[in-house]
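name: query_chain
kind: protein
chains: 1
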Amino acid sequence: MENKPWTNNKLKGKIASDSLAFTKNRSSDYARRVFTHAEDLEFHIWFDKHYYFREEHGDENGKREGIGIEAIQELIVKSTKHLIYYPLKIKSFVFINFSSDLMRRSERIVLQNNFHNAPKLNVIAEYHYLDANRFEVTVKTAIRKDDFYFSDGQYLVEIYDNDKSALHKKELNKIKIISNYLR
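structure:
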């Protein structure tokens, strides 16, 4: 094996603390990290009047238990990294609405928290683009139910306790798993 002047074969497989060292990354065997940039994202969370009515008064089946603001807010925050991940992996998955799309109905997504000993929390939400790093999330409604019905063509992100998730899509009345987030 040829000894290249920019590598140190003795350190191969070990993390070098030399900031000038060339190391392996996802694109190259010999690359140097020069900068890391982090972008902050803001999600403005809103609750629709319909949600408040269901949470306070219920529906024909009575008051809806387990759909409090804190539980829903926690699910929205927990879902954020999953919702960022899936469109990067699945090009056809779109959950953000833009104001230029006013001629068609806004996309709604179902966020589902999968509990071990309780019915699943299902939250129907709309996400809208405000600015480069700001988004508006409006909770339309919520219900605790294991066999939740969602519309044909609609996506559902099921969140598990161990920070894993599954992206589902209903097509021709059949629910298909499109992808998984396994950390």
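note: DSSP finds two helices and eight strands in the chain.
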